[in-house]
Design brief:
The chain is mainly beta. The protein contains one helix and 14 strands; from the N terminus they run E-E-E-H-E-E-E-E-E-E-E-E-E-E-E. The model has no long low-confidence stretch (mean pLDDT 93). It binds zinc ion (2 copies).
């Protein structure tokens, strides 16, 4: 597995990852909508040990997660404002990279098997959730760590539209 590189708009911050992501989270929560200024965050999740900064040191903005109360740290470029990754007090062994900051944002797989969509309850109207992917109304687990059952749409599901013939299972 070769290194995959990414960085911020101005080039002051560069990073590299040494392995495939553990999974790719598509996060539709309000935090990610605000932080990205977009509809959702494409968030490949890496083990911390497989991620390294290769140039510069990110600035950090930390705030408490509304759900767990634990700190989420946005690592960003103080010069150009690009967000590079999230670190989690609750999950210290992993990082969530802002997927669009990779030089080639298409290098990692995002198949139904490797990805999941979370916080559908706050997803923007008209967002399409692919068929066959694990989807969750909120987080994938409760605050005490209990896993939540995903829903899987049999057809592509448009947020805000009543789905026809697709079973929640
Ligand atoms: Zn920058
Ligand atoms: Zn989010």
């Amino acid at each position: 597995m070769s290194w995959n590189h990414g960085g911020c708009l101005c080039g002051a911050l560069r990073y590299a990852t040494a392995a495939k992501p553990l999974r790719v989270t598509f996060c539709h929560c309000k935090f990610c909508q605000r932080a990205t200024g977009s509809a959702y965050m494409v968030e490949p999740i890496f083990e911390r040990t497989n991620f390294a900064m290769t140039a510069g040191t990110p600035a950090i903005y930390a705030l408490a997660s509304k759900g767990s109360g634990k700190r989420v740290s946005i690592n960003f470029c103080a010069t150009c404002g690009t967000r590079l990754f999230l670190a989690f007090e609750r999950f210290p062994d992993i990082l969530g990279v802002y997927g669009g900051t990779f030089d080639d944002p298409d290098w990692f797989e995002r198949t139904p098997l490797t990805s999941r969509h979370i916080f559908l309850d706050s997803a923007r109207q008209g967002t399409i959730i692919p068929a066959g992917v694990r989807a969750y109304r909120e987080h994938t687990m409760l605050n005490d760590g209990t896993p939540v059952e995903p829903v899987i749409f049999e057809q592509p599901h448009e947020i805000g539209k009543r789905s026809t013939g697709s079973a929640w299972r």
